[in-house]
Amino acid sequence: MQQKIITVCGPIAPEQLGFTSMHEHILSDCSMFRNRVRKTCFAPYPQSVQPGDKLTMENRSALRHDIVLSIDNMKLDDEQVMTLEVADFKAGGGDSIVEVSAPGIRSSPEDLLAIQRIAERTGVHIVASAGLYVEDTWPARFRTMTFEQFAAFLRREIAQGVGDTGILPGQIKAAYEVYNQQLDDYLRAAAYVAGDTGIPLQVHLGPDITPDEVRQNLLTPLFRGGCVPGKTILCHVQFFMGVLSLDQLVTTPGWLPFDISFLRELLDMGFILAFTPLGFEADNEPLGFAHFPDWYTLSGLVALIREGYARQLVIGNDVFTKLATRHGGGEGYRRLTDFVVPILKKSGVSDQDIHSMTVANPARILAV
Question: Best label site of 2, 9, 74, 96, fewest CB within 10 Å?
């Protein structure tokens, strides 16, 4: 049977996919991040932005250092603006986007109807996600589900569409930040349904987790569920290259962590690694952490390309705040085509390897 990729506007042939960002949000609500427990402040900042303040040029700099101060900043909620943002991606040479929002960070399933309209207006292929994000974002009805119920939920969305929209997903979303049995059941179910249906699975990895946690608390349930590594994308993997501690960076001149050994370990198991976010300028200085600049992220990507892993690597911008959009003064969805691809070429990465990461790999992974 001929393979296809499922988009919000229907199936397409894999060769139609083109240049793809594998991890994006188009309409989403990440304001729940404000409710998370914050660590002890490293460098206290004056609270110049109030929760009800809109993103403006006057408060943009403050929000760069603490994105959650403004509820408005954490929401991508304007269909007209996001249509222009996606159209800008198309004008820059982009063809397709994998939209990774899920219940808890998707305002409602009806967001997908708006995303479908955006796809129709812009000509960009958009792949939607079934599944769930981090457990603290799960709506109440998911918090008591069993393995069997999680599997039934995923199968229904894959067969009938997300919510009552009738829009079919092209991948399953999962996430790991804090382990518990409920999450273990969901991860096993997501891996099981992905393996059984052939639909890819993309897993968010939190910024504070360790390789040992991933081995024990993520990979174990995934493999118990029948995970297919070549169809499983692990994202935000640059966080494993090192912790950019302001204390150490400032007090130890010349110190810079760089360790890709765990990334090699995952690649040697057959997993797909997504380097994302790119173009994300925000940091967390009050908590003592510098942001991961693109040159640092790309140094890990280039090292792995040189070691021959290009067929297992993908990239994405991960736009999820107004701050990150072009209309909010950020890079928007254009960072990949405007900066990442040119700098990879400048660094000696071949056209073939760039094509693999941005065109061939996404098409192979998303095809069912």
Answer: 2
